[in-house]
Amino acid sequence: EAAPVEVEHDSPWSQEPKRHALLKPTSERPFNAEPPIAMLSEKFLTPNEYFYVRNHLPVPTLQPEDYELELEVEAGEGQKKLKLSFAEIKALPKHSVTAAIMCGGNRRSEMTKVKPVKGLSWGAGAVGNAKWSGARLCDVLRQLGVQPHEQLHVIFEGADLDPTSHPYGASIPLSKALDPRGDVLLAYEMNDQPLSRDHGFPIRVIVPGTVGARNVKWLTRIIVADHESDSHWQQNDYKGFSPSTDWDTVDFSKSLAIQSMPVTSAICSPMPEEHVKVDGDGFITARGYAWSGGGRRIVRVDLTSDGGKTWHVAELEQEDLPDGRHYGWSLWTARLPISAEQRQTQSVELWAKAVDSAYNVQPEAFEHIWNLRGVLANAYHKVKVKLV
Amino acid sequence: EAAPVEVEHDSPWSQEPKRHALLKPTSERPFNAEPPIAMLSEKFLTPNEYFYVRNHLPVPTLQPEDYELELEVEAGEGQKKLKLSFAEIKALPKHSVTAAIMCGGNRRSEMTKVKPVKGLSWGAGAVGNAKWSGARLCDVLRQLGVQPHEQLHVIFEGADLDPTSHPYGASIPLSKALDPRGDVLLAYEMNDQPLSRDHGFPIRVIVPGTVGARNVKWLTRIIVADHESDSHWQQNDYKGFSPSTDWDTVDFSKSLAIQSMPVTSAICSPMPEEHVKVDGDGFITARGYAWSGGGRRIVRVDLTSDGGKTWHVAELEQEDLPDGRHYGWSLWTARLPISAEQRQTQSVELWAKAVDSAYNVQPEAFEHIWNLRGVLANAYHKVKVKLV
Ligand SMILES: [Mo]
Ligand SMILES: [Mo]
């Protein structure tokens, strides 16, 4: 019912929105694209038009005046059903949270160099940081009388439909949805603007600290259930495996659906093979982002320009928010010394690694975190640049 | 007042309890000791008498009939003061939680091989897993009228006193203390037995998922405050630093006090240099533990017997508890193939690495996580054994 009539009669791709020319597609249909990563470290809040786009299906066309969010409490306590119009959601108390959203496949293109993986070949730009505003899901669930329960899940469905008319779907634990510190939003604004069509207009659920795939766009249905979403993307995708698991031996039912993401970082500037001028003191400047899931704050980013013999602690730009609720990313800047030998060979490799508030660190290399879907690619980011 | 009169007149060490002969001391005064790690993987709940002991000061002698817990609400809302007797704490609703407690310096002896660090030379045995029972701190704080507040802390003081009569102290964020899923206990039982003197008799605060140092023993005072504990152990110890930070450059005020611990694992059996028989199928069996802080469940433990060319997923023994509230450790078992060449050289090196529910992984080596205090030593555990 949410899909527009035109799509039924025409190609499902005929209603795709216009995109910014700087977004580099990793696939056209469905549309997936990331910005040049040098742009990411320039602004703490990623401009909406450069924010990476991850669509699994054609973009639906929803009208706010027809929009309806269905809520169902299938399991546990609470009122069984509720429908909320767009106006009713906007009439609820408005909350804002700064949260980075990251694709489970961010940096897959680096992992695939170890051994090929299946999936879109993302660089380090499948992430963005925005201020999201909307109603709190915990307020809506409490109004319904939903009570904490460790075995329940909250399923989200989008208006984006697969060729058999099944919606995109995902789920999160009820404990995350009900936690006021979880900051889950029924968001209608991104950086103080209405959501664009590519980002879920009119309503997207924002699940801070959780892999992008659970932040369902074009949200039309919420179900409190005793099981996870049975969607392809919850059950047979976005899960991690041992490096020795291959497509002959993989059993998706045995692995945990990714929720909270591990600590990661990337060098946004200089970019690989960029020509960089060494300053009068013999230093170059690097910038980038760092982030960890689960509301864990980045507490340190270390950079090296000599293969890890000496590490330099970066300056951080981040919000002053407590651990467990620090959902935004951190931007970092570091000045790195260049040796006489590096000046002579006109080449240096920079490495970045971040530490989060649980003192988790990134793994050094992709070899031992390799997985057949190429997700969770959070090894040290290593960038070779030319010196001039 | 909590310290017994004898200590004032005599050596503060004259009242130390008797310890089990199998505990290997890393220091005698204060007493610090760990069990042989092969014993750790034998039982899911570590027997009390083998549980590692980490004392910072002499063990105080407290009598339950004189015991008094002082509570003070210095900052935020709530009744200003309350005193609870041991009988009053026991009269509160009793809760139990399985939680591993791990010393911040566990496995320091491995990190120190890269470059010397300051601290007790712990092996991989400064951890144990127990069922703790007591009153919930969140219930007590709610009774006092304490309200959630992101900027407040809960300070704990013990009856163990330094030579200037200052107590051992530590603090945690109020958000952890108030969260029912945080499972913080005023514990009086360990594996269904009254706490022993070495483990905090009569009351120890159990802060599941949090470094051992915050699980204050011989608890006598709780303060809700607008600052962390000003104790040495909160301010100038138990913090992480970059590998390039040395004692000339270190600034403890700039680093985060360790709370939630990062993912780790250890091979308990076989032990280093142990002689191991290869079975008829050409395999050996390894066992160990894995754990992550913050209530994150262990989702996988990978073992290799060929330097990471092939990884074998271990069988896990763990409680069936939800993520975010999975505070106990996981024991694991794996059968590992031995190559013809390894049989010939009669030698093999085993590596273990664990993955937690946020898909954080262990770093491969100690070199790039080295820190001057030798804490957070969670690199892959590597054990060389002899084959027979
Ligand atoms: Mo994604
Ligand atoms: Mo410790």
Structural overview:
Two copies of one chain form a homodimer. With 388 residues, chain A is mainly β. Chain A is built from eight helices and 22 strands. In chain A, the strands form five sheets. Chain A has a five-stranded mixed sheet. In chain A, strands 6, 7, 10, 11 and 12 form a five-stranded antiparallel sheet that branches. A five-stranded mixed sheet of chain A has the order 15-22-21-17-18. In chain A, strand 10 and strand 11 form a beta hairpin. The radius of gyration of chain A is 21 Å and the shape is globular. The model of chain A is unreliable at 1-8 (pLDDT under 50). At the A-B interface, strand 17 and strand 18 of A face strand 17 and strand 18 of B. The complex binds molybdenum atom (MO) (2 copies). One molybdenum atom (MO) is lined by residues 54, 103-105, 212-213 of chain A. Residues 54, 103-105, 212-213 of chain B line the site of one molybdenum atom.
Briefly, what is this?
The structure is a homodimer of 388-residue chains. The first copy, chain A, is mostly beta strands and 388 residues long. Chain A is built from eight helices and 22 strands.
Radius of gyration of chain A (Å):
21 Å
Strand content of chain A: 25-35%
Structural class of chain A: mainly beta
Secondary-structure element pattern of chain A, one letter each: HEEHEEEHEHEHEEHEEEEHEEEEEEEHEE
Quaternary structure state of the chains depicted: homodimer
